[in-house]
Amino acid sequence: MQIERSSGRLSELVQYQNGSIVSRTIIDKKTGTVTIFAFDKSQRLSEHTAPFDALVYVLDGECEIKISGQSYHLKAGDFIVMPANEPHAVSALEKFKMLLVMIKS
């Protein structure tokens, strides 16, 4: 199996696109994934659940994350853990980028 070796600035791995959410998966394994997202202002992921814990680290900008109805305002440098099976949603208050680490086992 070939392993791609990468280094650099995480925030530069995806670029903003008008009216869109852009993502790039860095690691995709049975045990978990690491994905970078770029949200244009006002873009959102509607409320949903995931069967695994996930860590969100904000790389740039500001967002609101709701977990089980409670709102959290995050800025660059902030992180939050979204527990498995808890309903959550993500909204861009301005353009923002995030690192999502999902642990499957």
Counted beta strands: 9
Main β-sheet description: 5 strands, antiparallel
Cα radius of gyration in angstroms: 14 Å
Give the spatial strand order of the biggest sheet: 1-2-9-4-7
Basic shape: globular
Q: Helical segment tally?
A: 0
CATH homologous group name: Jelly Rolls
CATH structural architecture? Sandwich
Distance between the termini: 21 Å
Structural class: mainly beta
Helix content: under 10%
Q: Indicate the CATH class.
A: Mainly Beta
Strand/helix succession:
EEEEEEEEE
Low-confidence stretches: none
Give the total of domains.
1
Q: Kindly state the mean pLDDT as a whole number?
A: 93
CATH fold descriptor? Jelly Rolls
Question: Per DSSP, what share of the residues sits in E-state strands of 2 or more residues?
Answer: over 45%
Protein name: Cupin domain-containing protein
Domain Cupin type-2: 42-102
